[in-house]
């Protein structure tokens, strides 16, 4: 045991004062720890928010991609036969031209062979149009309807004061749609000179399945 207690106490005070001076005259570093922990916590909160935002944006983009893909697949199924159907319409046109080329009186007075041939061509035409309709191709029937530029192509005008203007009065070539798209517009003649047509909801008119072109 030291013989000079006062000297030992003085030495201890010197050590404390030395440590206090090393910390810049402030309290021990433990008091700065809560502030550092808070800053670290706030950084984590911000990073978490950014990750959540990124996750939500990615989820939205994936949902949009899923919808676009589903729509593209649906369109591909609905309209995949459009080019083929358009080519088949040319065949149907030729069948109709062949029938129209036979005079009505000739058909009535012709022999059995010509009559059977005409009936066979008509049956083939009906069968073809019915097959096309099963694949979503439908015939437009604009006769007497208001002219619609989305589905009809005006070829000429017919003066008629008794018919509302812009009414389809003659169909030169039959039009068709596939789904909700125009496969081929109907070529028509429209009236002029009559009273203004009453506004109506636009849209195509369809004929029942199995009718003649």
Mind explaining what this structure looks like?
The chain is α+β, with helices and mostly antiparallel strands and 213 residues long. The chain folds into 3 domains: 29-80; 82-134; 137-192, Nucleotide Exchange Factor Grpe, Chain A, domain 2 (Roll). It has 5 helices and 6 strands. The chain has helices at 5-22, 33-79, 82-100, 104-109, 112-134; strands spanning 137-139, 152-159, 168-173, 176-178, 181-184, 186-192. The strands form 2 sheets. It has a 3-stranded antiparallel beta sheet. A 3-stranded mixed beta sheet has the order 2-6-3, with no helix packed on it. Helix 3 (82-100) runs antiparallel to helix 5. The radius of gyration is 44 Å and the shape is elongated.
Short description:
53% of the residues lie in helices and 15% in strands. The chain has 213 residues and is α+β, with helices and mostly antiparallel strands.
């Amino acid at each position: 045991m030291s013989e000079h207690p006062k000297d030992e106490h003085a030495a201890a005070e010197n050590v404390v004062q030395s440590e206090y001076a090393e910390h810049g005259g402030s309290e021990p570093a433990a008091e700065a720890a809560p502030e550092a922990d808070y800053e670290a916590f706030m950084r984590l909160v911000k990073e978490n928010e950014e990750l959540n935002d990124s996750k939500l944006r990615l989820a939205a983009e994936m949902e949009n991609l899923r919808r676009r893909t589903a729509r593209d697949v649906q369109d591909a199924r609905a309209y995949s036969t459009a080019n083929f159907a358009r080519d088949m319409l040319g065949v149907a046109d030729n069948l109709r031209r062949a029938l129209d080329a036979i005079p009505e009186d000739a058909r009535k007075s012709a022999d059995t062979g010509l009559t059977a041939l005409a009936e066979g061509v008509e049956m083939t035409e009906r069968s073809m149009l019915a097959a096309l309709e099963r694949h979503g191709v439908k015939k437009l029937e604009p006769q007497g309807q208001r002219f619609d530029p989305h589905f009809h192509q005006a070829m000429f005008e017919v003066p008629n004061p008794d018919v509302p203007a812009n009414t389809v009065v003659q169909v030169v070539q039959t039009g068709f749609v596939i789904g909700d798209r125009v496969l081929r517009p109907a070529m028509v003649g429209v009236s002029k000179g009559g009273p203004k047509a009453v506004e109506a909801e636009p849209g195509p008119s369809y004929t029942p399945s199995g009718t003649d072109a």
